[in-house]
C-alpha cells in the first residue's frame, strides 16, 4: 500500500547470530582486553565492527555514548550492550561475564601471591620497580583524557576546580562528580559549543548485520523494566545480606563494610577506574585501614598486568583487607570470600544499568542535554585522575608525609628529606618511555619491574 510507512531495518528474532558463535567471539575478546578501556574498546571495535561486521560503526558508538553516561567500567558495559544487541539478555550476560572472568581469576591468584610472598626480597624489589611505573601510567591517563575532553576553556576550568576540590579541600568524590554533571549542563545553556556532538569518524566495509539505523526487537515496557529492576536488585544485594549473616556468626564485619562500601562505589564510578580509585584509595587506606598507602599502588600495578576492567583492583583491596581482618575465619578463606563478594557487587550493577536502560536508549538518539552533563563529568575526571597521580606520587616517591590543615584547606604534603632517589629515577624512566616513546602500560611495567630487580641485585635497595 502506498500509504504504509516502511519499517526501519531491525532484528526480528532473538539472535542476530548463533549464540555459540557469539560466545566464541566474546571469549577471544576477553583474552585480549589489556591496556585499559581505550585498548578494550579498540579490541571490540576491531572484532565486532571491522572484522565480523556484526555492528555498524555509528551503532557501536551510540552504544558507547550511553555506556559512558553510566557509572562503572564503560568497556565492560559496552560488551554487555553489544552482547544484548546480538543475542538479547542471554548475549548480554555472556558477553559481560566473559569480559571480566579472566581478569578476576588472574588477579585472585596474584592477590594470593602478594599476601603470601609480598614481604620477600624479590617481590619487594619487583614492587619497588612497578610502583613508580604506575605514576607514569596515571599521568599518561591524565594526558589522554585531557586531550579528548578539554576542548573548551570552560572545561579546563572545571577540570582544575575538580582537582583543587579533591586535593586541597577534601570535597567528597561523589559530590565532585554530580556537581560537575550539573555544571556541564548549566554551562551548555550559555555555551552552545558544549552541546554539539563530537565527530566520531566513518564506517567502511560491507553492510553490517545490525545497521546504524537498526532498532532492537526488545521493546521498553513497564513490565520488562520492573522485572529487570527487581531481579537485578535482588541479585545485587542478596549476597551482601547473606554475608551480613555470616559476619554476625564469625565476627567478620569486614564483609559488611566491603559489601556496602563497594556497592555504593559502583553507583558513583563515573569516568573510569582511574577516577574512582582516588575515592577508593582515600576510604580503603584512610578510613577502613584495609591497606597501607603504598599497597594501593601495588594493587593497581597488578591490575594493569591482567586482562579486563582496571576497576578489578577492588578485588585486591578486598582480598588484602579481609585477610588482615578475618574475624574467627581462616584468613585465606576470608580473603577469597571477600574478593568474590566485592567483585560481585562491583559488576552486577553494570548488567542492571545496561539491560534496564538499553531498550530506552535504542529509541533515544543524540540527547544533547545528557551529552552536556557527560561533557562536564568527563572534564572533571581529568582533575580526579590528576588527584590520583598526586596521591600515588606522594606515597611512592617519599617515605614520610604530613597533613597540612589551614581553614578549608586539608592537604597531605611530603617530608622532603624522605625522598627516595631510586623511585624518582624509575619514575623518570617510565615517564620518558610512555610519554615520549609511546610505550604501553604493560611494556613499561615490565621494564620497571626488571629495573627494580636489577637495582636490588646490585645492592642499591
TrEMBL record:
One of its GO terms (molecular function) is chromate transmembrane transporter activity. Keywords: Cell membrane, Membrane, Transmembrane, Transmembrane helix. The keyword Nucleus does not apply. It is a multi-pass membrane protein. The chain crosses the membrane at residues 93-117, 123-142, 154-187, 228-248, 260-281, 332-358, 370-398, 418-435, 442-460. The keyword Lipid metabolism does not apply. It holds the Pfam family Chromate_transp. InterPro entries: Chr_Tranpt_l_chain (IPR014047), Chromate_transpt (IPR003370). GO terms for cellular component: plasma membrane. It is found in: Cell membrane. Belongs to the chromate ion transporter (CHR) (TC 2.A.51) family. This is Chromate transporter. It comes from Nocardioides kongjuensis. The lineage of its organism: Bacteria, Bacillati, Actinomycetota, Actinomycetes, Propionibacteriales.
